[in-house]
Amino acid sequence: MSEPNLQDIHDFLIEIAKKAGEMIVAANPSTITSGSKKNSSDLVTETDQAVEKMVSTTLKEKYPSYEFLGEETYQPGMHLTSAPTFVVDPIDGTVNFVHGYPYVSISLGFTDNKKPLVGVVYNPFTSNLYSAIHGRGAFLNQTTRLPLKESPEPLNGLSNALVAIEWGSDRTGVNWDVKCRTFQKLGEPKEVGGAMVHSMRSLGSAALNLCAVASGTLDVYWEAGCWAWDVAAGWVILEEAGGLMVNGNPDDWKPAVDARKYLAVRPAPEGQNDIIEELWGMVQGRFEYEH
Question: What's the number of CA atoms in the CB half-sphere (13 Å) around residue 1?
């Protein structure tokens, strides 16, 4: 098999993202007509399924030898392999989508040897398109280089940070407990052992959270429970902007794309490793997600 042409893949994914965006904006979902997978917070709509079918069919026509891993066609036991693979979330932010909250994206990633090489994340409601090719930088709307500030400030600890978090759809058990106790620790004053972060944000889309970190508008994003299709595209955008991705559990500096536990840090001339280690020190327990 010949080497993938990353530029061609990038350009084709942008075409697909725009077409998917038209489908998403034209839809009229509601909390009444949507269905659920695992529980009432893990939603799926006909649009999720229709967009993924369009994306998978279109990609298979042009790249018949490449693999496809998508949220709506995933089955237990499926894993990201070393083969060239498109990793797709047709609607990242389905809960936002059914409520009309405009933080929704299509996330289109391409991996080879399990490494994210191309990423396209598109929010059709704001017309913000984030994209990157490994080794060639990251961009907003193909023209504005990320991060948005030409000279980003150094990171100066969690007490000066705006931190992204997500509640997720797992609301019981060890992982839920780790999240809730860590959220509390991040918010508490330093006098009682907390980090006293500036504040915490939840955009409701892992892909858009990663793009915000890549842009420099969020300092840190700590997440667990999401999947490869939530992060593959945003991962390469983040790294190409100069950000770092490590494990959401402490002491793993090189997580797998499908690790399901992540910590993203914005581009900065200094302070990235320090804030990673500081946040790891705040984590209350360890996540135990299965791949």
Answer: 11
Residue of 113, 109, 110 whose CA lies nearest to 83: 113
**Looking only at Cα atoms, what is the longest distance across the chain?**
59
Peptide bond into 255 cis (omega under 30): no
- Residue among 92, 112, 223, 240 flagged as catalytic: 92
Q: Which residues contact 81 (CB under 8 A, 6 or more apart)?
A: 67, 114
Query: 205, 104 in Cβ contact below 8 A?
Result: yes
Q: Is 71 a catalytic residue?
A: yes
Q: What is the pLDDT of residues 191-219, one digit of tens each?
A: 999 999 999 999 999 999 999 999 999 99
35-70, pLDDT tens digit by residue? 445 444 445 678 888 999 999 999 999 999 999 999
Which listed residue (48, 52, 71, 239) is catalytic?
Answer: 71
- The b-or-e profile of 90-129 (16+ CB within 10 A means b, else e) is bbbbbbbbbbeeebbbbbbbbbbebebbbbbbbbbbeeeb
Give yes or no: 230 in active site. yes
Q: Does residue 8 carry a catalytic annotation?
A: no
Structure tokens at 15: 């075409």
User: 244 - beta bridge partners?
Assistant: 265
Whether 94 is a known active-site residue: answer yes
Q: Which of 89, 219, 223, 240 is catalytic?
A: 89
Please give the model's pTM, rounded to 2 decimal places.
Answer: 0.94
Phi then psi for residue 166, to 5 deg, are -140, 145
